[in-house]
What does this fold into?
Amino acid sequence: MAMDTDATALAAAKERYRLERDKRLRTDGNNQFVQLEGNFPNFDNDPYADPDFTRDPVAEQVDAVIVGGGFAGMLTAIGLTRHGMRNFRIIEKGGDFGGTWYWNRYPGCMCDVESMTYLPLLEETGYRPTERYASAPEIFGYCQLLGRNFDLYPHALFQTEIADSAWDDATKNWSISTTRGDQITSKFFVLAGGLLHKAKLPNIAGLDEFEGHAFHTSRWDYSFTGGSPTIDMDQLGDKRVGIIGTGATSVQAVPKLAEAAKEVYVFQRTPAAVGVRNNGPVDPVWFENLEPGWHDRRIRNFTEVVTGKEPDEDLVDDGWSQLMSVDCQKNTEDPDEIAELERLDFAAMDSIRQRVDDVVDDPETAELLKPWWGKHCKRICFHDDYLPSFNRPNVHLVDTDGLGVSEISARGPVIDGVEYPLDLLIFASGFEVTTDLDKRLGFDPKGRDGVALSERWHDGAHTMHGVLSAEFPNMMIISIVQAGFGTNFVHFLGESARHVAWIINECEQQGVAQIEATPEAEEEWLGVLYSVVGGVARYSQFCTPSYYNSEGSRSAKAARNLVYVESMIDYVGFLERWREAGDFPGARIEPVA
It folds into this structure.
């Protein structure tokens, strides 16, 4: 009888998933977001850097230019340093190292992956995180620590962007110019700057007519809210604040806004799935007694657990482990196995929905906050204060029944004909992830014969392993497109940076003047990506749009801009075997003359 009840509940859930997905399907995909440049430049200004900063232009020849000063760029530079290579430049738009953690300074911001797993090189630096889930200020500080420990600051050009870049086939070098007038020639060109830094802004009618104050969460304006990332906001006591977006950012920011503002309106298109975080301090005695090699073991173990690899033990044992230890997107044709995976997925998400009922007092509000989608459709959130915020009298959930905010008047958002006057409107709409690489980078590299990346990739990405691309010699990419993807993003970045640094060093050691993927190797790799996507295709038919599926896009470009959907461990295996081969299989190389 229980099994019949489970089957009935599962069938009802699948139908609910389908209905909720259908409400949210759009034809514009990633085009629903407006380009900030030339439209809303105030949303992309850097509120954290010195606006009067200036320096003399640099003219130089280097071995490598690395675009991006986040973890990807820093770990690549550290990898080169370990190979004895120090003649490189890091070009970074922000005013310091940190990448995402430079930009994300909104109140309540912290990492949702355990600090001892997320932060790289902990054994090398000897750093002990203060909390199990570190706050954004601590992570930003750790990025600065890495910059000091590995002497990266002398190599960095901050508050600088690439203006143009082109491969010179005669000199076998990249010619790179910047917005600061720099002219740099480099043998290798590493694109590590297109990840989680370019703010997304929904293209809502009337956005430019709003007369209140507005900003994106990655450009938080503390001059308006008061406070700082570590000090409570003290200027919102008489303000009506609205926030658009209910993903990981909003889940963390809403509780802080609830404490500070007179009224808070949370505009919801799709409810977040919010599990228990249970944060706390890191035990110094436990940390000091960890055995050498603990860090790499812990990183790998966590990835194994959350991708269903079933290691002998679960070293992290947190919400991620409990919810994601079974890969319900498994590529299988067995109907009994598929049915069991669906049952397990439903049970995991039903526990999330039950938590809403347990925490939120008002039944109507609780029902609206329940996520009706599978656990692999969006990134699960973990927080202990978001759901309780809706028990406060000053916090109001404005559900849009899957449509999102489509109109903003001079006074505020308009939902079903009801205007919500606001003093402050905050966009917690995230970053671009799977949009065109040249758009995320802010420049369009020109490869052999002056062919732009946007032209060669007009139908989607063309790479081997997501790293090397034909017709773009000595250019290496660190991006999830056609590459790995995992819960612990820095695990992916660390493996990618290690791979890129190895390629550059090996080319130098073997006297290789230029390296690129062959078109045949690109298509072979695309075939590998397609060969493992079956389970995801089956699973995602009930998923609501998100950055996981390019906002539901079904274009030919989206079909190429996919990720390796099996375990990150398996993706890393492809890189390791390629390096072990030693002769750059699938690459076109040209020796030094």
Remarks:
- The chain is about 35% helix and 15% strand.
- Residues 1-5 have pLDDT under 50 and may be disordered.
